[in-house]
Design a protein that fits this description.
5 copies of one chain form a homopentamer.
Chain A: E1 2-14, H1 17-20, E2 24-30, E3 37-46, E4 55-60, E5 77-88, E6 91-95
């Protein structure tokens, strides 16, 4: 799973009806402390009603379809959790 | 899913009859605003009748086969949506 | 599988009840000797009761769901083993 | 899918009888015009009787096993097509 | 599949009994000639009784579980063959 920041949203013309019902948010992976954004942005199906600015946990690949909402849909990334607290090397580095 | 720009098309000799019936387009991932092309290009099966220049959403891996057209075909990337609107940090960064 | 160091932990609001019961730890891949941390950090489900500082073996993708705990859950990385001993080119480079 | 150039071949001692019957070729991804080789080389099962120098389309991951030849075999990349024609931004950039 | 060099071995405390019965070796991808090691090292289940120094072919992802030994185990990379011979651009670049 990746620690990511929700940075935006998308509106699109999607053919698959099951994907249409979900929010597709733009995410960007961060470092372990949730501070610095790294890598390229990607789009994930939101399962936890998160919003822009939230630090979230995303899962990728076939794992993204192990939920009732995304099962058998063309989805390869989901936001599975809103992060409340990150601890690195014994120090709290993020608190919501 | 990746935000990508359709940049071209391919013609090829394919053995699998189900893949032959589909358009295979060349795509290139962009940044979150759909402006800058990044990374290497890749080829995706077009499911939404998109064309060169369109900003699209592509999904990858086994997710690409969760549609009636690509089911059980040797396809690892599909164009699943044409993007109409992208918003990053509260600003509209792309409108079709 | 990746040789990784456990560097931290996460607390989050997760909808899926099966994932909630597990520890989600922050890991970072190391080189073959377990010395230098490389690449970006990621979050993995802990299956072996490991802790911060442990050198572990993680597996990724659908492999991460080949266990009774993670089966059919939205999990794409698990800590499957605590490393006791690494040998590279005939030399012991790590001993727990 | 990736646009790749076939650059070589392998001979190896393979235990799995179904993989033994196939040609395993060395490929290298190219840019969208098929001109410049990029990234690291990889080995793919040839399904279309291609040869060294051919520009091909390869698919990866579980997609590579969606054919009668590779089904249920330890194969993660196949050459699924020989490319005849590539067009980028309205210009023909490759013709076989 | 990747052309890789076996560079070391691991001993670890693994919970899954089926994975415990197998050798887990440290591999590093090489270039197409098997000469230069590139990228980060990874750990693969050995299916072909290879040893440190051998040039091997590894397969990754769900492909790694398409064998009787690794089926339904948390394994994402296997050594599927010992390479005997590599030919690039018509030249023999490796012979065992």
């Amino acid at each position: 799973m990746k620690i990511s920041r929700v940075i935006g949203s998308t509106i699109s013309t999607i053919k698959s009806p099951r994907v249409m019902e979900t929010k597709l948010l733009i995410c960007r992976e961060t470092d372990a402390t949730g501070t610095e954004e790294i890598g390229t942005s990607y789009v994930a199906t939101d399962l936890v009603d998160s919003g822009v600015g939230d630090l979230v946990l995303t899962c990728h690949g076939s794992a993204a379809r192990q939920t009732t909402i995304t099962k058998e849909t063309p989805v390869d990334a989901v936001i599975m959790a809103v992060l409340d607290h990150l601890e690195v090397d014994g120090e709290v580095v993020f608190r919501k």
